[in-house]
Structures are given as structure tokens and as C-alpha cells.
Amino acid sequence: MVYCIAYGCNNKDKDRERGVRFYRLPIGNKPLLKQWLSKLRLKDPPLSQNSRVCTQHFHPDCFERDLQAELLGTKPRVCLKADAVPTIFSFVSAKLDRVTGKRRKHIQVNNSHIEYKLGTGKF
Questions:
Q1: C-alpha distances in Å from residue 58, one per residue of 37, 41, 48, 71, 91
Q2: Residue 58 · residue 52 · CB < 8 Å
Q3: pLDDT, tens digit, for every residue of 31-68?
Q4: Is there a smaller number of Cβ atoms within 10 Å at the N or the C end of the chain?
């Protein structure tokens, strides 16, 4: 079974119907692999030929254009550029609010910081 190893991502093989594609970690390219692992922030990542990251973690400019498909009017192949690094993630951590002592959730989306107080339904 193919699945995305990125934190909080639930994309699996069945999501291919929605256009989700999976890409292997660059095991043979150590400098690039180090960049990928740094961005993934996994403490003990499963490093094997079966470890994959899905399309949702890459910016559109990380993909190559399929000029042949564009010229022939066929379905384009979705290929990563050789130097592409996944950069889109949702890292979530729960902390206590210093004033109220209630739990709150910090959500980072595309380098923006959003605070959501649990139990209140307010940001």
C-alpha cells in the first residue's frame, strides 16, 4: 500500500483517483535527501524505496511541464523537477494558555501562525 509519510497527511493509494500522486524520497541523492528530511521534520522517518511524499506537499513550480502532452493535447505527466523539495505542511502542536491554563492549538499553515483555543471554537 502506498501512502504519504508527511506528518498529518492521510493520502493513500486510493486518493490517486483525485489526482494525488506519490513521489519517492531521493535516497540516492544524499544532499537532496537531507533537505527533504529537514522539511518533513520526522524524528525517525521510514527510509526505504517505498517511502513516498504526495503532490500536496509541493508548490506548483516544483513540477516540470509536459510539453509533448501540451502539443499533442494529451493528458500531461506530473513529474517533479530534479531539485524539488517538499515545503507545504501543516504542523500542529498543543500547548497550555498561560493566562487561562486551557489547552490551545498552534497551527502553522504556509509559514503563517494561527492560534485556536480548544473548547471555545474561536481563533
A1: 14, 15, 20, 25, 15
A2: no
A3: 999 999 999 987 787 788 788 999 999 999 999 998 99
A4: N
